[in-house]
């Protein structure tokens, strides 16, 4: 068991209990924070886009080409990741992410 | 000129669940028309993950999104449903009574109207719309300086055009608009493109010849007194910024799903979903049903197989509206000659 910290689009930081093997998108959605996850974690929609705190970036598996292709479809920055492509493990206890803005 | 169509049922959304509803309705001799904003059938399965495997369709250990759609299309072929693609339903007007529902459904694009006895909303996550990038004040320039699609190329003649994106739309319009634009700039987040290789090569040749510009980065702000766009501030990965002068910006970030006009049809909504009962999958408006990912009820699972079940049960109630005088006999396709005749497989 461990936690992730998620800053929502209003700047409020939430500490969420995380489960091993869950996608970070699923953890955020399960706690009721507004993350769309339209395609259900298939790396096909980029609606689970988050910004990962710089100190955590290197601890994640680098994005696959498939994830890079999806990151092309949002306004992404060097710390952008799709949270459905981050599987939570105890090494990620304390992971810090921010929900990316969505267009209207 | 606008068309008017009379039918039993209008199905909104031609995804897997809408398609299978055609089958369940067809077995009950109920005719239907399907309306979808996409140019083809299949909804998310065809648009988002055509090549992705699905493992939880009963009877299919594995099927791709497109494979499932192709099979559903073959399965409903005996019922000859009529598809209306590239159309979005704008309004549903109630003409009948709760006991004898009658509706007028109108689409936005062509203004086609339908008169029908029931409406089945199988719209999934809503209608596919171009993704709008979250850039401050972008709405203020939409239709004057910001466009999400190219309808008439001539509009961009002699303009300073900024295209944003790295997929087929971005690259196709880059090479198509470059000859008529005053200056064309392509902006993408990285120096890799998902578009057809020959189009990418063409773009690179134009850049090498100095006939267009390619920048890597993202738009961080727009410049100009709205609605007149004058430039875009580009931020690079290293945080440095510069401005590209432009009269128009065309962001091509693909499609996303929005609830759209469904919110204005007088239906109860709960967090952008339509509550239904679990006997008939009917909404608060008698005669309007909601099946698949768009509905909600206690215990709802957003699975394709749930949507199939919901369509079968909704069809039973639709039958009462379409044939109020007929008693519905429950039959199996395995044993019923009359159902087999409808499917064109009777011996």
TrEMBL record, chain A:
Pfam families: Fer2
Record keywords: 2Fe-2S, Iron, Iron-sulfur, Metal-binding
Any one Gene Ontology BP term: P450-containing electron transport chain
Recorded superkingdom: Bacteria
Keyword RNA-binding found: no
Protein name (Swiss-Prot/TrEMBL): 2Fe-2S ferredoxin
MF terms (GO), sorted A to Z: 2 iron, 2 sulfur cluster binding; electron transfer activity; metal ion binding
UniProt domain 2Fe-2S ferredoxin-type: residue ranges: 2-103
UniProtKB/TrEMBL annotation, chain B:
InterPro entries associated with the record: FAD/NAD-bd_sf (IPR036188), FAD/NAD-binding_dom (IPR023753), Fd--NADP_Rdtase_type_2 (IPR022890), Ferredoxin-NADP_redctase_2 (IPR050097)
Catalytic activity: 2 reduced [2Fe-2S]-[ferredoxin] + NADP(+) + H(+) = 2 oxidized [2Fe-2S]-[ferredoxin] + NADPH
Gene3D superfamilies tied to this protein: FAD/NAD(P)-binding domain (3.50.50.60)
Keywords (A to Z) from UniProt: FAD, Flavoprotein, NADP, Oxidoreductase
One GO MF term: flavin adenine dinucleotide binding
Record Pfam families: Pyr_redox_2
EC annotation from Swiss-Prot or TrEMBL: 1.18.1.2
Highest taxon above the source species: Bacteria
EC main group: oxidoreductase
Binding site for FAD: 36, 44, 49, 89, 128, 293, 334
Note describing how the cofactor binds: Binds 1 FAD per subunit.
Cofactor entry: FAD
HAMAP family per UniProt: FENR2
Family: Belongs to the ferredoxin--NADP reductase type 2 family.
Self-association and partners: Homodimer.
Descriptive protein name: Ferredoxin--NADP reductase
């Amino acid at each position: 068991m461990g936690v992730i910290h998620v800053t929502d689009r209003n700047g409020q930081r939430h500490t969420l209990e995380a489960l091993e093997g869950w996608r970070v998108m699923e953890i955020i959605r399960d706690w009721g924070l507004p993350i769309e996850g339209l395609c259900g974690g298939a790396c096909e929609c980029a609606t689970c886009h988050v910004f990962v705190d710089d100190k955590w970036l290197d601890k994640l598996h680098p994005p696959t080409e498939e994830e890079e292709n999806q990151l092309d479809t949002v306004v992404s920055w060097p710390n952008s990741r799709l949270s459905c492509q981050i599987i939570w493990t105890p090494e990620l206890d304390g992971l810090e992410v921010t929900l990316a803005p969505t267009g209207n | 000129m606008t068309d008017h169509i009379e039918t039993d049922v209008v199905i909104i959304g031609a995804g897997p669940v809408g398609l299978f509803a055609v089958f369940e309705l067809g077995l009950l001799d109920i005719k239907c028309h399907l309306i979808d904003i996409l140019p083809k059938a299949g909804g998310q399965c065809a648009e988002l993950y055509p090549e992705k495997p699905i493992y939880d369709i009963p009877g299919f250990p594995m099927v791709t999104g497109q494979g499932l759609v192709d099979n559903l299309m073959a399965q409903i072929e005996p019922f000859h449903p009529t598809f209306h693609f590239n159309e979005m339903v704008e309004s549903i007007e109630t003409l009948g009574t709760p006991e004898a529902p009658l509706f007028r459904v109108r689409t936005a694009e062509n203004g086609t109207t339908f008169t029908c006895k029931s409406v089945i909303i199988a719209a999934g996550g809503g209608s596919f719309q171009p993704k709008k990038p979250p850039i401050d004040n972008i709405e203020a320039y939409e239709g004057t300086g910001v466009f999400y699609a190219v309808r008439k190329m001539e509009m961009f003649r002699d303009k300073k055009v900024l295209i944003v994106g790295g997929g087929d739309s971005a690259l196709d319009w880059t090479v198509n608009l470059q000859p008529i634009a005053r200056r064309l700039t392509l902006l993408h987040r990285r120096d890799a493109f998902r578009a057809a290789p020959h189009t990418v090569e063409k773009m690179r040749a134009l850049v090498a010849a100095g006939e267009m510009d390619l920048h890597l980065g993202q738009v961080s702000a727009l410049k100009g007194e709205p609605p007149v766009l004058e430039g875009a501030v580009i931020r690079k990965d290293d945080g440095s910024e510069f401005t590209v002068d432009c009269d128009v910006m065309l962001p091509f970030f693909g499609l996303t799903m929005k609830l759209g006009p469904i919110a204005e049809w007088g239906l109860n909504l709960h967090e952008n979903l339509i509550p239904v009962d679990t006997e008939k999958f009917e909404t608060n408006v008698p005669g309007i049903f909601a099946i698949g990912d768009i509905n909600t009820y206690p215990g709802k699972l957003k699975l394709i197989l749930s949507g199939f079940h919901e369509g079968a049960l909704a069809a039973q109630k639709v039958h009462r509206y379409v044939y109020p005088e007929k008693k519905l006999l429950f039959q199996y396709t395995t044993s019923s000659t009359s159902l087999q005749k409808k499917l064109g497989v009777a011996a």
